Amino acid sequence: MRDLNESSVTDAVIEQMAATTDARLREVMASLVRHLHDFARDVHLTPQEWLQAIGFLTQVGKACTPARQEFILLSDVLGLSALVNLMHDKTAVEQGTESSLLGPFYRQDAPSLALGDTIAGKAAAGELLVFGRVTDRKGKPLPQASVQVWQTDEEGVYDLQKGQGNTMDMRGNFRCDAAGRFHFRTVKPLGYLIPMDGPVGRLVHSQDRHGFRPAHIHFLVSAEGYRELVTALYLADDAHIDSDTVFGVSKALITSPREADPEAPVKGIPSIRYDFRLGIAAAEAAGRVGADPSQIVSAH
Length: 300
Ligand code: BEZ
Ligand code: FE
Hints:
The chain has helices at 8-16, 23-43, 47-62, 70-77, 80-89, 199-206, and strands at residues 127-136, 146-150, 171-175, 181-187, 192-193, 212-213, 216-222, 229-235, 254-255, 271-273, 276-278. With 300 residues, the chain is of the alpha/beta class. Helix 1 (8-16) packs antiparallel against helix 2. The N and C termini lie far apart (48 Å). It binds benzoic acid and fe (iii) ion. The site of benzoic acid has 9 residues, from helix 4.
């Protein structure tokens, strides 16, 4: 019988888990226990703090619904989602456009719209045209590529945050033309606070962080035989462009609307042009860091 002490308890746990048949589970759990124990020793975790953490995680779990994923939000504000994304990007056989976070407001059953349609359910000030092409890494157009977009409305709110999350607005799925081109109308997105009315928001608040994400439009771009791209375009003039609460901004994704781009397929409104490059697909597991919340917690 081994006498457990503050350091030998770590080895005892790892030894007991050493027979795990699934090699990846064995590796992940051993590393998790090692880091978790090191963390507890490092900060001299007290019983009260341990209980507070249990209470916090319980609240995070209780806040999860088919329309809200508080655990993903926790991962986001800790920079874990961004880290997993960055590591996943490095596994690409061909680098395409930089990726960004999927976030908790993606919905997989958004309406299919025709090129040129608006994703805004009601007319609002600040109309914007977004256009561009989907190409391979070398610039060859990818005909009929799929472009899914979603963003906040002109007040900085996602449809999922309204009512029971059963209205669809400010999102749509487009199919590129034969030359890989797409364009759609929308309204200028506003920067917004991540959901602050739950345990994660309270944590962010208690850390004196502002809680904002800079204004952006989300994209999920895909084409047969190419690696799916989850990304977003960020607006350069947002006050929080350098301090995103969830660490999703990279320089290559920062854009500014132009007043009269001669190449814009619709005149008279400001436009953003962005061409998305897709790398070829490799045989691998799905790479989305996130999911439609209703696929994680079902309504029934
Ligand atoms: C978003 O961009 O929709 C988002 C991402 C992470 C946390 C909250 C919102
Ligand atoms: Fe967003």
